[in-house]
Amino acid sequence: MMLATVGLSKYFPIRGTLIGRMMLKAVDDVSIKIQENRIVGLVGESGSGKSTLGRALLRLLEPTSGDVLFNIPDEELAIYERAQAANDTAKLHEIREKYSLLRKSTAEMRRLRREMNIVFQDPYSSLNPRMRLVDVISEPMLSTGFCTRDEADERVFDLLRDVGLPRFFEDRYPHELSGGQRQRVAIARAISTYPKLLILDEPTSALDVSVQAQILNLLRGLRDKYGISMLLITHNVAVVAYLAAKVYVMYAGKIMEWGDRDKVLRDHHAAHRMSIPSEVSGGVRDLRVDRGGSRGRPGVPPPRKVLRHVWRGGECSPGSGANDRHRGSRRCGENPRARRPRERRRPQPEGDRVDRTEERRSRRTAL
Ligand SMILES: Nc1ncnc2c1ncn2[C@@H]1O[C@H](COP(=O)(O)OP(=O)(O)O)[C@@H](O)[C@H]1O
Ligand SMILES: [Mg+2]
Predict the structure, then answer these.
(1) How far is the CA of 202 from the centre of ligand 2 (A)?
(2) CB–CB of 137/185 below 8 Å?
(3) Are strands 197-201 and 229-234 parallel, antiparallel or unpaired?
(4) What count of other Cβ atoms lies within 10 Å of the Cβ of residue 128?
(5) Residue-wise pLDDT tens digits, 261-306
(6) Which end of the chain, C or N, has fewer beta carbons within 10 A?
(7) What is the pTM of this model?
(8) d(CA 186, CA 140)
(9) Which ligand 1 atom lies nearest to the CA of residue 44?
(10) Residue from 325, 319, 271, 359 nearest 122 by CA
(11) Contact 30/7 with Cβ under 8 angstroms?
């Protein structure tokens, strides 16, 4: 098994409460397995704990409890599970010492980082804007001691080719690239040390629909070429359906469903637990429902207000949507506190008036 978590949890203290009293259970007792050379999907609505889990797997966030066993042979994992059932602490300790990422020292983790990497959702913020692409891509090779600078420079050409970018891109800066090209660079960087495991956190969510399929095909090609195991984190069931063989469905920090893709995606329970009526999404269930930062409870639908934002402008996230409209409407040099007189609307001539009721209704059903 490439990676197995056992009862992994990550809690965050909730600010404003007495220290240690209230904890947000972002990931709660999660056990997942990722086989060698497989793409495993992790779906769930926004805020369900997917990114926290992805980061905890690589110890980019220190888990609160549980275990992460990396590159453990299946027989040893079976022994571990038996020892757990029998409460055989000596055996558990022995296996943990060998395979648990949480037992590794900083130096060991640095070396192990060659074997695992992560691609983040937003290629605009995940690449350092001051670095040329050659430096961006070779950074993991140098920081983990994978090779020398000269070797890294040489390898950048191969990596650019692997992700479908021309050689001369090595001298460019991230701002000179499109979103899709940036994500290709992020992928080149992530695979630069021949990792065995790649965590992909919403790798296509920030991209145009037309580019999304190209990136997904690229990932599939890299899996076939290098035999990389991947955990594909997404809110988009269509993305998982396209690439993953096995799927975990996460909700409110816990794994609610898991199994073969076809079984899980056909299963109506998942849709009900996500509180999304299947007719709204027309068969393909897009789990992107923002609860405005609040934690959802199974079976409780999100507030209507939040859903309205989702209908109107895609995602409802800080810095986009409704707030931006207010920000944009303020004129330069104007006192923001002063109230502007409301513009009087001129009555439209009868012929020009458009009945928008139908349009609004169809937009709602489309989402
Ligand atoms: N560093 C953090 N500190 C406190 N709370 C966090 C932190 N990171 C994530 N959370 C909270 O954990 C929950 C899960 O977040 P996240 O893992 O980002 O969800 P997802 O990736 O599924 O959208 C959210 O309620 C979020 O507010
Ligand atoms: Mg996330």
Answers:
(1) 7
(2) yes
(3) parallel
(4) 12
(5) 989 888 745 454 554 433 333 333 344 433 334 444 444 444 333 3
(6) C
(7) 0.76
(8) 11
(9) 22
(10) 319
(11) yes
Helix pair angle (179-190, 149-162), 10° resolution = 130
Looking up tokens 């769930």 gives: 44
Q: Is 47 in the pocket of ligand 1 (CB under 6 A)?
A: yes
Q: Ligand 2 mean position to 45 CA, how many Å? A: 9
Report which residue type is found at 153: D
Mutational test site, ligand 1, from 10, 12, 14, max ligand atoms within 8 Å of CB = 12
In degrees and rounded to multiples of 5, residue 276 shows phi and psi of -115, 115
CB 27 within 8 A of CB 253: yes
Rounded Cα distance between 2 and 112, Å, is 13
Which stretch of DSSP H or E encloses residue 124?
Answer: helix 123-126
Tokens of 196: 């065995």
Distance CA(117)–CA(186), nearest Å, equals 10
What the chain holds in terms of domains, given with CATH numbers, is 3-281 (3.40.50.300)
Look at residue 364 in the predicted model and tell me its pLDDT. Answer: 55
CB 254 within 8 A of CB 48: no
| Distance between CA atoms of residues 111 and 131, nearest Å | 24
Which ligand 1 atom is the nearest neighbour of the CA of 54?
A: 17
Nearest residue (CA) to ligand 1, atom 5 = 12
Give the pLDDT of residue 347.
53
Backbone angles phi, psi at 8, to 5 degrees: -75, 130
What residue ranges of the chain have pLDDT lower than 70?
17-20, 268-367
Asked if 60 contacts 38 with a C-beta cutoff of 8 angstroms, the reply is no
140: amino acid identity, one letter: P
Q: Determine if ligand 1 sits within 6 Å of the CB of residue 296.
A: no
Query: Taking the chain, what is the end-to-end CA distance rounded to the nearest angstrom?
Result: 38
For residue 263, give every residue at least 6 positions away whose Cβ sits within 8 Å of its Cβ, in sequence order, or none. Answer: none
